[in-house]
Amino acid sequence: xxxxxxxxxxxxxxxxxxxxxxxxxxxxxxxxxxxxxxxxxxxxxxxxxxxxxxxxxxxxxxxxxxxxxxxxxxxxxxxxxxxxxxxxxxxxxxxxxxxxxxxxxxxxxxxxxxxxxxxxxxxxxxxxxxxxxxxxxxxxxxxxxxxxxxxxxxxxxxxxxxxxxxxxxxxxxxxxxxxxxxxxxxxxxxxxxxxxxxxxxxxxxxxxxxxxxxxxxxxxxxxxxxxxxxxxxxxxxxxxxxxxxxxxxxxxxxxxxxxxxxxxxxxxxxxxxxxxxxxxxxxxxxxxxxxxxxxxxxxxxxxxxxxx
Length: 308
Known about the structure:
By secondary structure, the chain is mainly α. The chain has 13 helices and eight strands. The chain has helices at residues 9-13, 15-32, 38-46, 48-59, 114-135, 145-150, 180-201, 218-221, 224-235, 240-249, 257-267, 284-291, 293-301, and strands spanning 71-76, 81-84, 87-90, 93-94, 97-98, 106-111, 160-163, 166-169. The protein is globular.
């Protein structure tokens, strides 16, 4: 059994890699996905050797791989409701302020076929060390300005060991992602630390503003071409056939094209008929970091520079 995996079909097809991908995928879905098909997970767990063998057989001919279209699971975000005339209805106003229609707060979660889920996780395992190494160690002290330049991403980081400053994902363990709560607290403290440094090193009359922003509907907006462009330099060096398969796997369509089109038109999202990071794929968080790494690099290049 290899200690370090690389982005190659040989590693991807290995039985022990696919078994670990299954374990991590099944555990994550049971813990985090309220709409997961647990009956399907139970069934496949009873026939796991056959399930792994089926995956290996399909991977013998990777050129023929076709991703199974996704089922849309419409899930509302938080919205205040009221009981009126014996019927529960969404509130239209709160404190005189008009709220956006409930239809605008529906998220298109996705039910991903289990073979696709496990293969995507296996690809994550093969790319884990390269990606985590590039993103830097989230355990580095944020008190150091140099450390803050090394690490920008704190969400959906993998459970890793740090050896000599290098990160290595424990792909043979039961854990996949790091504990979100701990990393999120570090993320929230960063601007406070910078603020304190600025106030100490400058006049007390200086004002400091902390600006927060959000990438709206990020997963819905990442097109396959963007993700493939970011993953290509990581994968092609080890095995071009691995990357060719990656392009086939991370390009899903929707079974209900009409509902997908309706969502994309309502929220002005172009190209939503083909998605790379469905909300419901275990590996989506990891590959979201890869997809926007160029954005993080641009931020890093502008540290300590004025924003006009």
